[in-house]
Specification:
The protein has 1064 residues and is of the alpha/beta class. 47% of the residues lie in helices and 9% in strands. The chain contains 46 helices and 29 strands. Helix 33 links the parallel strand 15 and strand 16. Helix 2 packs antiparallel against helix 3. The radius of gyration is 37 Å and the shape is globular. It starts with a helix and ends with a strand.
Length: 1064
C-alpha cells in the first residue's frame, strides 16, 4: 500500500525533483529539499533561477539511491548534530525492554513515577539501539509496532533525532530503506489527513518502492485528540482524508500500511491509550546516572569549577532533588536555578540566601534568574524594579492562563490560534523573559508551535496564575465557561483546587497543587515578593491552608498517591510537624501508637522520600493488618522490607502477595520473621513468586509453615528464577517438606542460600536433600542445624559433597552426629574443593572423630571455617586437631569452645600457632586450659603474625596467665580482639595488661568482664588508656566496683580515651 502511495507521489513530484536538482549550489539543493519536505513545494519554483522553471523540462535521470542519499542529507540538516546534555551516545545507546506499562506509569504524574521509584529502574533487560527493530531471537519476527516511553523531559525527541542521525549515516536501522520521522506537533496542524498525504508530507518523491520502511511518530502525548481504539471506524483507503487521530489509530491497527514498521514515542500515561495486544515491543529510556548528572551540570555551567562544585554538592545533599535530576530536562533547569543562586551569593559577598529545600523554592530561583535578578535589590524601590515587576506580572497573566487551562485540557503544545484564543500577546513571546519558559518550533506545515521548556514549568506558571487570579475571582476558575456557584476568597479557591487534585485519577494536578501550596511558604514569598507575590500575604493563609490540606486525608482503605501528594504539599508549605512526629516515632519504636489517616499518609510519604527507608524499611513490631493494607501501594518501591514480629496471620500474605505479584514491584528483600504465618500464607506467597521478578531474599523464620506450605514454595521455586535466598528456619516442614524442597533444587539453579534449621527434619529429608545436591549447581549455603538427621543423614550428605562442587557452607549443628557420621564426612573433605565452612557444633564427636577430621585437614586446602563447639574432643582430640592446624594453611577460623580441653591440648595449639600462617580466629572459651595452657598460647603470639581474635572466656585464667598474655601483647602487632571474661586475673594480671596497653597499638577490643577486679585494678587499666590510641572498646562490667566508683572511672576513661567505648 505504501509503495503505491509513494509511486503516486513520485508522479506528482517529478517537476519538483527537477527543481531541487537544478538549485545552483549543494547547500541550496539541501534547502530546497528541506522546504519540499516541509510542504513548501508550491513556493519552491518561484525562488529558483528562470532556467530551472521551464514547464517542458524533462525530469532529470536520478537513481533511487541518489534520491535516498539526498533525503538522508536533508534529514541530517533537520536533525542537527548537537549532543544531548550529559552525553547522548552512552545513555541512548541502549533502552530498557518492558513487558508492558505498570499501574504507576499509566495512572500517576511523571514526577510521582520518578519519586516513587527513586529515579531507579527495576530489573529489566536492555536492548541496543541498533537492534531496536530486530527480532529478539532466531525464531521471532521483527516488531511492527514499537513504543518507547519516558517521563516528560527524559529525552524522547532527542532519542528520535539521535536515531535519525545514525540512520542517515548508515550506522543503525540498516534494514530500513526509508525512515519517515513525524512529530505530533506537525500532525496537530492538520484537521484531516490521508495516508497518501501523510507520506507525501515527509518524502514526496521516493520513486521505486523501498524494501522496508520505518514510520516514526514522536510525542503521542502531544496529540491534540486522544486515540479511541473502541469507536474509531476502520479505514483501508490510503487516499481518504480522515481525522488525524483516526488515521493514526488505523495505522497502528494495521488497516493502513500493514507492511510498515511504526515507532511511537510517548509519555507513559499517553502510551496506555494503545491496547497492549497491538504493541509488539515496548522500551523505556533510562534516566541519568550520577556521572551523567555531573556531565549535564558541567555543560549547563561551563568554565566555573567552583560554581559547579557548589551546585553538584547541593544536588547530592538533597536526596529528593538528586532523584529528580535523573530526568535530563529537570537536571538542566536545576543547574540554571542553582547557578543563579550561588552567583547571587557571590555578588552579596556573604552567606546569602539558603539553598532551596522544596520544588517551589527551586523554581522561584529559576523565575528570579529569568528576571535577571534585577527585581531584587535588597528591597530598594526604583522605577526599574517596578518596571520589571510589572513585566513579570504581565507574563503570569498571559502565559499563566494559557498554562492553567492547558493543564485542565491535557494540552501541552500551543499554536498561534491557541495564543490568540487565550489572549496572549504574540509580541510578548519574543521577549527574553518568555524564552526562559517557552520554546518555539517551526512545524512542517509552516505553523509555529510553542511548548513550555518542561512540563513542571507549565505547572509552576499555572500555579502562579491561579494564586494571583483566585484573590479576585468570584467564580470557580476550573469552570472554563466562567459560570459556577460563587467562590469568594483565596481559601475557597484553594479548597476547590485541592478537591480537584484529589479527584484527578491520573494525578495531572498533583504538582500544580504542590506549587500552589509552596507559594504560601515564607521563603518563596521572600524570593518573589517584589516581582510576583504580595509581600507578607502568605502569613494570613499558611496555617489555614495547612489545616485544609490535612483535612483532605480521609480514612481510606489504602493510602493513595493523592494522599501522599498532600504530604508533598505540606512539605512545600514548610509545614512539617506531622511528618516529623511520624519520623520520630519510627526512630523510637513508637510507631504502633500512630494509626490515624494522617499518620498513615505521613508514613507512606516517608517510605517514598526518607533516606533511611530508601535502603531498608523497618516496620517490625509496629503494624497490624489494617495499617499494612493501607500502606500496600507505597510498599511496592521499598528495596528491603522488614515486617518481623507483627503477629501477622495468613490473610496478610494474601495482601502482601498482591503487591509482590505486580509487575512494577521493586521489593528485593522481605523479612516476615517471627509472625504467625501458616500453610495458607506460604501458598499465597508462593503464588506471587510465580510471577515476581524482583525478590531475591525471603525470610520466613519463626512461623508455623508445615509440609503443605513448603510444597507450595517448592513448586514456585521450579519456575522462579530470581529468588536467591530463602529462610524457613524454625518452622514445621519435617521430612515431607524437605523432600519437596529437594525436588525443587534438582531443577532450580538460582537459589543460593537455603535455611532449614529447626524443622524436625530426619534421615529421609536429609537423604532427599543429598540427592538434590548431587544435581544442583546453584546452592552455596545449606543450613540444617537443630534437626535430627543423625549419622545416616551425615553419610548421605558426605556422598553428595564428593560430587557437588558448588556448595560453600554446610551447617549441621545439633544433629546427633557421632564419630561414625564424621568419619564419612572427613572422607568427603579429602576430595571436595569448594566447601569453605562446616559447622558441627553440639553433636557427639569424640577424640576418634576429631582424629578423622585432623587427617582430612592435612589434605583439604579449601575449608576456612570449622566449628566443633560443644562436642567431646577432650585433650586427645584437640591435640590431633592442633597438629593438623600446624600443617594446614587454609583454615582461618577454629571454634573449640566447651570441649573439655586442658593444658596439654593448649600447648599443642600453641606450637601449631607458631607454624600456622592462615588462622585468624581461635575460640577456646569454657575449657579448663588454666595458666599453663594460656601461657603456651601467649608464647605463640610473640611470633604469630596472623591471629587477630583470641577468645579465652571462662578458661581458668589467673594472674600468671594474664601476665603471659601481657608480655605477648607488648610484642604482638596483629591481635585485635582479646576476650578474658569470667576469669580471675587479679591485681598482678590487671597491672600487667595495663602496662601492655601503654605499648600495644593493635588491640581494638578487650573484654575484662566478671574478673573480680576492684577499684585499684580498674584504675590501673583506665590510666593506661591515656597512652593507648588503638583500643576502641573495653568491657569492665560485672567487677567489684560500686556505682560511684564506676561513674568516676567512666569519667576518667572519657578523658583519657575519648575514642574508646567503655562498658561499665
Amino acid at each position: 500500500m505504501i509503495q503505491d502511495s509513494m509511486r503516486k507521489q513520485e508522479m506528482r513530484s517529478g517537476g519538483e525533483a527537477n527543481q531541487i536538482h537544478g538549485a545552483s549550489s549543494p547547500a541550496e539543493q539541501v534547502k530546497a529539499l528541506v522546504d519540499l519536505l516541509a510542504g513548501k513545494g508550491s513556493q519552491l519554483g518561484q525562488n529558483l533561477p528562470a532556467r530551472d522553471r521551464t514547464p517542458d523540462s524533462p525530469q532529470a535521470p536520478h537513481s533511487h539511491d541518489s534520491r535516498i542519499q539526498r533525503y538522508r542529507e536533508a534529514l541530517l540538516s533537520r536533525a542537527g548534530s548537537g549532543p544531548e546534555l550529559g552525553g547522548s551516545s552512552q545513555r541512548l545507546a541502549s533502552l530498557l525492554l518492558l513487558d508492558g506499562l505498570t499501574d504507576l506509569q499509566q495512572r500517576e504524574h511523571d514526577f510521582t513515577q520518578v519519586e516513587a521509584t527513586r529515579g531507579g529502574w527495576g530489573p529489566a533487560r536492555t536492548i541496543a539501539l541498533d537492534r531496536l527493530f530486530l527480532p529478539l531471537s532466531r525464531v521471532s519476527i521483527p516488531p511492527r509496532i514499537s513504543i518507547t516511553v519516558g517521563v516528560a523531559g527524559m529525552g524522547k525527541s532527542t532519542l528520535v533525532r539521535h536515531f535519525v542521525r545514525l540512520w542517515a549515516h548508515g550506522q543503525v536501522g540498516k534494514d530500513f530503506s526509508l525512515v519517515l520521522p513525524l512529530t505530533f506537533r506537525d500532525l496537530n496542524t492538520h484537521e484531516k489527513l490521508s495516508a497518501d498525504r501523510l507520506v507525501g508530507s515527509v518524502f514526496p518523491n521516493v520513486g521505486e518502492a523501498p524494501a522496508r520502511v520505518l514510520l516514526v511518530l514522536d510525542g503521542l502525548d502531544e496529540c491534540k485528540s486522544p486515540l479511541d481504539f473502541s469507536n474509531t471506524v476502520a479505514c483501508t483507503d490510503p487516499q481518504k482524508d480522515v481525522q488525524v487521530d483516526h488515521l493514526i489509530t488505523n495505522i497502528i491497527r494495521g488497516n493502513l500500511f500493514p507492511e510498515v514498521s511504526v515507532w511511537i514515542t510517548s509519555r507513559p500515561s499517553a502510551a496506555g491509550q494503545i491496547p497492549g495486544g497491538l504493541v509488539d515491543r515496548m522500551t523505556e529510556i533510562r534516566g541519568f546516572t550520577e556521572e551523567e548528572i555531573r556531565a549535564c551540570l558541567e555543560q549547563t555551567l561551563p568554565g566555573d569549577q567552583a560554581l559547579l562544585g557548589q551546585v553538584l554538592s547541593q544536588v547530592q545533599r538533597n536526596k529528593a532533588l538528586y532523584v529528580m535530576c535523573t530526568v535530563p530536562a529537570f537536571c538542566k533547569l536545576t543547574g540554571v536555578a542553582l547557578g543563579h543562586l550561588y552567583r547571587s551569593r557571590l555578588a552579596l559577598q556573604d552567606a546569602g540566601p539558603a539553598p532551596p529545600q522544596t520544588l517551589c523554592e527551586l523554581y522561584s530561583w529559576y523565575f528570579r534568574m529569568a528576571l535577571g535578578g534585577e527585581a531584587q535589590e535588597k528591597g530598594k524601590a526604583s522605577p526599574r524594579i517596578e518596571q520589571v515587576a510589572h513585566s513579570a506580572r504581565k507574563v503570569v497573566g498571559t502565559l499563566g492562563r494559557l498554562a492553567f487551562h492547558g493543564l485542565l485540557r491535557k494540552k501541552y503544545v500551543f499554536y498561534e490560534q491557541d495564543m490568540k484564543a487565550f489572549g496572549v500577546d504574540l509580541a510578548l513571546l519574543q521577549g527574553a523573559l518568555c524564552s526562559c519558559f517557552l520554546q518555539r518550533e517551526d512545524t512542517q506545515a509552516s505553523a509555529v508551535a510553542y511548548c513550555f521548556n518542561h512540563l513542571s514549568l507549565q505547572e509552576f506558571v499555572a500555579a502562579t496564575y491561579y494564586y494571583s487570579a483566585s484573590r479576585r475571582a468570584i467564580f470557580d476558575l476550573f469552570t472554563e465557561s466562567g459560570m459556577s456557584w460563587p467562590r469568594l476568597g483565596f481559601l475557597a479557591h484553594f479548597r476547590g483546587a485541592a478537591q480537584r487534585a484529589m479527584q484527578a485519577e491520573d494525578g495531572r494536578l498533583d504538582v500544580f497543587l504542590r506549587f500552589l501550596s509552596g507559594l504560601l511558604s515564607p521563603r518563596v514569598n521572600a524570593l518573589l515578593a517584589s516581582s510576583l507575590l504580595p509581600q507578607g500575604e502568605h502569613q494570613a493563609y499558611q496555617a489555614q491552608v495547612a489545616e485544609l490540606l490535612q483535612g483532605c486525608l480521609h480514612p481510606n482503605t489504602a493510602v493513595s498517591a493523592r494522599s501522599v501528594n498532600i504530604l508533598h504539599c505540606l512539605h512545600e508549605l514548610r509545614h512539617t510537624e506531622l511528618t516529623r512526629s511520624v519520623e520520630e516515632a519510627m526512630q523510637s519504636g513508637a510507631l504502633a501508637e500512630l494509626t490515624g489517616p494522617s499518620h498513615r499518609a505521613a508514613l507512606a510519604y516517608l517510605l517514598q522520600v526518607s533516606d533511611t527507608c530508601s535502603q531498608e524499611t523497618e516496620l517490625s513490631l509496629c503494624l497490624d493488618q489494617g495499617v499494612l493494607q493501607s500502606l500496600l501501594p507505597q510498599l511496592l518501591y521499598c528495596q528491603t522490607l522488614r515486617l518481623d514480629n507483627n503477629q501477622f496471620q495468613d490473610p496478610v500474605m494474601e495482601l502482601l502477595g498482591s503487591v509482590l505479584s505486580r509487575k512494577d514491584c521493586r521489593i528485593q528483600k522481605v523479612s516476615l520473621a517471627e509472625n504467625q504465618l501458616g500453610n495458607q500464607g506460604a501458598k499465597a506467597l508462593a503464588r506471587s513468586l510465580l510471577v515476581n521478578r524482583s525478590l531475591t531474599a525471603v525470610d520466613l523464620r519463626g512461623n508455623t509453615i508445615g509440609p503443605q506450605g513448603a510444597k507450595a514454595l517448592a513448586d514456585a521455586l521450579r519456575i522462579n528464577r530470581t529468588l536467591a535466598s530463602l529462610s524457613l528456619q524454625s518452622n514445621r516442614i519435617r521430612d515431607d517438606g524437605a523432600k519437596c524442597m529437594a525436588e525443587a533444587l534438582a531443577s532450580n539453579q538460582t537459589l543460593s542460600v537455603l535455611h532449614l534449621q529447626h524443622n524436625t527434619i530426619g534421615l529421609i529429608g536429609a537423604q532427599k536433600m543429598a540427592d538434590a545436591l548431587k544435581q544442583n549447581r546453584g546452592l552455596k549455603e545449606l543450613m540444617l542445624s537443630s534437626n535430627s538427621i543423625g549419622d545416616g543423614g551425615g553419610k548421605a550428605l558426605a556422598e553428595a559433597l564428593k560430587m557437588n562442587q558448588v556448595l560453600q557452607s554446610l551447617d549441621l549443628q545439633s544433629n546427633s552426629i557421632s564419630d561414625t557420621g564424621v568419619a564419612v564426612l572427613t572422607w568427603a573433605l579429602c576430595t571436595n574443593q569448594t566447601l569453605l565452612s562446616l559447622n558441627l557444633r553440639e553433636n557427639s564427636i569424640s577424640s576418634e572423630g576429631a582424629q578423622a577430621l585432623a587427617r582430612a585437614l592435612c589434605v583439604n586446602s579449601t575449608l576456612q571455617h570449622l566449628d566443633l563447639t560443644a562436642n567431646l574432643l577432650h585433650d586427645d582430640g584437640a591435640q590431633a586437631i592442633a597438629v593438623a592446624v600446624g600443617e594446614n594453611q587454609a583454615l582461618t577460623s577454629l571454634h573449640l569452645q566447651w570441649n573439655f580441653i586442658q593444658a596439654g591440648a593448649a600447648r599443642a595449639l600453641g606450637q601449631a600457632l607458631q607454624l600456622n600462617r592462615s588462622l585468624r580466629s581461635l575460640d577456646l572459651q569454657e575449657n579448663d586450659i588454666g595458666d599453663e595452657g594460656v601461657s603456651a598460647v601467649a608464647s605463640a603470639l610473640k611470633v604469630n603474625t596472623t591471629l587477630t581474635a583470641l577468645y579465652l572466656q571462662v578458661a581458668s585464667v589467673g594472674s600468671p596467665g594474664a601476665q603471659a598474655l601481657a608480655e605477648a601483647l607488648a610484642v604482638n602487632r596483629t591481635l585485635e580482639i582479646l576476650d578474658l571474661r569470667g576469669n580471675a586475673i587479679g591485681m598482678a594480671g590487671a597491672k600487667a595488661l595495663a602496662n601492655a596497653l601503654r605499648i600495644n597499638s593493635s588491640l581494638r577490643r578487650l573484654n575484662l568482664q566478671e574478673n573480680y577486679l576492684g577499684m585499684d585494678e580498674v584504675i590501673y587499666v583506665a590510666t593506661a588508656l591515656a597512652e593507648n590510641h588503638g583500643l576502641q572498646q573495653i568491657n569492665l562490667q560485672g567487677n567489684l566496683i560500686a556505682e560511684s566508683g564506676a561513674r568516676m572511672i567512666s569519667d576518667a576513661l572519657k578523658t583519657n580515651a575519648p575514642m574508646c567505648t567503655v562498658e561499665m
